User: What shape does this take?
Amino acid sequence: MRHLLDFAGWTKSEVESLLETAKVMAEVLERPVKKVPALQGFTVATVFFEPSTRTRISFELAARRMSADVVSFAAATSSLQKGESYKDTLLTLEAMGIDAYVIRADAAGVPHQATRWVKGAVINGGDGRRAHPTQALLDAYTLLEALGSLEGKKIAIVGDILHSRVARSNLELLPLLGAEVWAAGPPTLLPQALPGARLTPHLEEALEGADAVMVLRLQRERMEAGLVNLEDYIAHYQVTEERLQKAKPGAPLLHPGPMNRDVELEGTLADSERSLVNRQVHNGVAVRMAVLYHLLVGRER
Amino acid sequence: MTILIRNVTLVDALGERGPADVLLGEGRILSLEGGDAERVIEGKGRLLAPGFLDLHAHLREPGQEVKENLATGLLAAVRGGYTDLVSMPNTTPPVDTPEAVRALRKKAQALGLARLHPAAALTQGQEGRLLTEAGLLREAGAALLTDDGRTNEDAGVLAAGLLGAAAFGLPVAVHAEDASLRRGGVMNDGPLADLLGLPGNPPEAEAARIARDLEVLRYALRRGQKKPRLHIQHLSTKRGLELLREAKGAGLPVTAEATPHHLTLTEEALKGFDPIFKVAPPLRTREDVEALLEGLLEGTLDAIATDHAPHTQAEKEMDLLRAPFGIPSLEVAFPLLYTELHRKRGFPLKRLVELFTDGPRRVLGLRPIHLEEGAEASLVLLDPKERPVDPKAFASKARFSPWAGWVLAGWPVLTLVEGRVVYQALE
Ligand SMILES: [Zn+2]
Assistant: This one.
């Protein structure tokens, strides 16, 4: 692969090989000295047009663990509105000799646009509603840890599917690994159709017999836009202990964070044994190391 | 100066005929049978048509000259075969006074390129609340009234505007989109928008507004002494077209235009996330494009108008949420549709030319120009030779194009306004 923008065109074996590499990287992270020289001499830039401290730190840590140099660029969207374009910003970095760009933006397609302007590898660090592929990879990795295999497994994704890049990327990736993916949410927060997804406005239908449940964050702005009523959402879409009875016993819970406790997820569940939230964060570094490794090692400079 | 164009095929709304030897002088067509002239141009294999009229161009002057100005915009126009052009009033400040209309006309006349017919705002500041002075604007030379660039949310204001404009014979043009339905949509709403993660602008936002505006027109028709005229800009959906067809069938005084981009591109173009394809209303589906073609053919649509909307390169290199809406197209509109509609799909040439000439002239209440003795010599000579679209060579300041690299035929090589050569690219 040259870039990681989304999973269009990916094969199952490519994903598996990447997740195998992530396993090796996870072992590195267990060592007393958590550093390998794999990316010595490479420079990775995190270019965040939209702030996200968690994702940025995870990527920067991943790059440093492999001995890459890291530069980070945070552009305020205000300076963009003043006429400095994404292209200018990226070309400036390009002139400094960057090998890989982790790009985060609030608009879908910015990483795709970037591949037209820079020679380095582009990694989508989350673009608008479109995609967040490394999040999906770490979710898949975490699910594989918990379930062994995803073949024939039913995964339920719950919440604001329409505006969620995490949901979209998981809906691309998990079926590739053999899972059956259901997405449940209020009708105003469901897309009309997405390949690979079974969409339903009934939470119970998605939870029925689920092997794992992924809960998404509900953004306040959806209420302000009149797309959903908070009380109604909690009454019908909050993942609760009681509703989880419908899923397989002990089915694990995932959440990409940050969480609104007692909104999308019952607070007690967030801290329960079932929650893999911290595991997800932990695995994020290993998965991102694997992505950087696959994109940079063997790449001509 | 007298000019003779020899052996040229004539084409206008009446049809194709010739070859003829067209003698021009004193701003008129003197003869179709030749004669002595100071300049002779070989017209063999070429087409001679009446000059085109664009009902909808954004020339950005005053206030946004970094995007375009009268000089670059009107030069782009004559290079596209346009002898007449209606400029949209959504400039900074908006063109909403007789003085502003006069200033634009005066400046355009001095340039000696295409003739400018400024549109004036329907409401003061295009704010949708207080009407502008229709009568004085008409006297100053305004061609129509519109708040294009904005949508007319207040139906009562539109009704009053239609009544006021009608008293002075002015049409009112509308950007028909319901703002609350389209919300922040940047592309056509549908499965593809969902897949690409881009906010959608539903086709129903256009249809809902057209339905409302037709009712407003009915009201103005019933209440007014003079017949109001409503013109729907850049119609883009199948459903919108059906509503229009029905209204015309019922005899309502409504006209409508379609743009070159809505006729040649679909939402699929957004797959590469390139804001060049971001336009309002958005590019729609293949089904909508086919419906528009039918509408052009059968006469439900009256004109092809460019909605030439120049922006800077940097603006179009923003992301899809922030990049501005708009495509520049004055210089390619005719060759594009000549090639894609007439040559590739057999769309009748006579009708195509009519949609660039008589159709838009009728919308403004102007007399048609037909190629006959005594007619005004505002003409365009079109060449069948193919060449690719090269935005770098545009006269427009907006040197990008969704059609860059498309190989087109039918390029204007000579444009005349009242017998005066305003553009030539003869070999
Ligand atoms: Zn408009």
Observations:
- The CA atoms of residues 275 and 318 of chain B lie 7 Å apart.
- Chain B touches chain A at residues 183, 190-191, 194-199, 272-274, 314-315, 317-322 (CB under 8 Å).
- The pocket of zinc ion is lined by residues B 148-149, 175, 233-234 (CB under 6 Å).
